[in-house]
Design goal:
- The chain is α+β, with helices and mostly antiparallel strands and 195 residues long.
- Helix content is 52%, strand content 14%.
- Strands 1-3-2 form a 3-stranded antiparallel β-sheet, sandwiched between helices. The protein has a two-stranded antiparallel ribbon with strand order 4-5.
């Protein structure tokens, strides 16, 4: 069943629109690829001035399912320029661009890995750093294969559970507020804060 693109974007990416996270991801199902391309282009035209970008990271014609990535380029660049994150991505087999601010090259590699992941075992769990998850949590998830976490919310945390739960609560509250505002008529463009 196809769901409204904008509603799914608010449900999954409200903290990104609010500037609380560098990026978010959602699955969107549609029979009309051309309409999806128009929506992505249209949202980029509207959101780019606010520091936000939208792109399809993976698409499957057979299942009609697409992974749509919404991100704040400046915040993502800061995450991906971090020496510890760069070292982690290099160990995961990413070719690091000379310009640490070039997140496009890394996103292209992530997109290719997503498209090549035929089974759950092949899924590129390093995607967590691209979504703004703490590196400690991404490495912990990979090392422990999703087990032995200290708490679970928007993702599985392997650090301080109290801090993680507080952060998860902040993200959940943001999403609830944005959904309420969106359903009462506030357009996404007004909900997206400039960065």
């Amino acid at each position: 069943m196809e769901r409204d693109f904008e509603t799914v974007m608010i449900e999954q990416c409200a903290p990104v629109l609010a500037g609380l996270k560098p990026a978010g991801l959602f699955r969107y199902e549609t029979r009309d690829r051309a309409d999806l391309a128009r929506r992505v282009a249209g949202w980029n035209a509207q959101l780019n001035p606010k520091g936000l970008q939208v792109r399809v990271l993976r698409g499957c014609i057979a299942t009609r399912q697409y992974l749509v990535y919404v991100y704040r380029a400046a915040k993502l660049q800061a995450v991906l320029a971090d020496a510890a994150v760069r070292g982690f991505l290099a160990r995961e087999g990413y070719r690091l661009p000379e310009d640490a601010a070039d997140c496009g090259a890394l996103l292209d590699q992530l997109s290719l890995r997503l498209c090549c992941a035929a089974e759950a075992a092949d899924f590129p769990h390093e995607i967590g750093v691209f979504l703004g998850y703490p590196l400690e949590d991404v490495e912990g998830f990979i090392r422990h294969r999703g087990k032995c976490f200290t708490c679970c919310g928007c993702w599985k945390s392997y650090g301080d559970p109290a801090a993680a739960q507080q952060h998860f609560a902040q993200l959940a509250k943001c999403t609830a507020v944005y959904l309420r505002l969106f359903h009462s008529g506030t357009p996404i463009l007004k909900l997206a804060v400039a960065a």
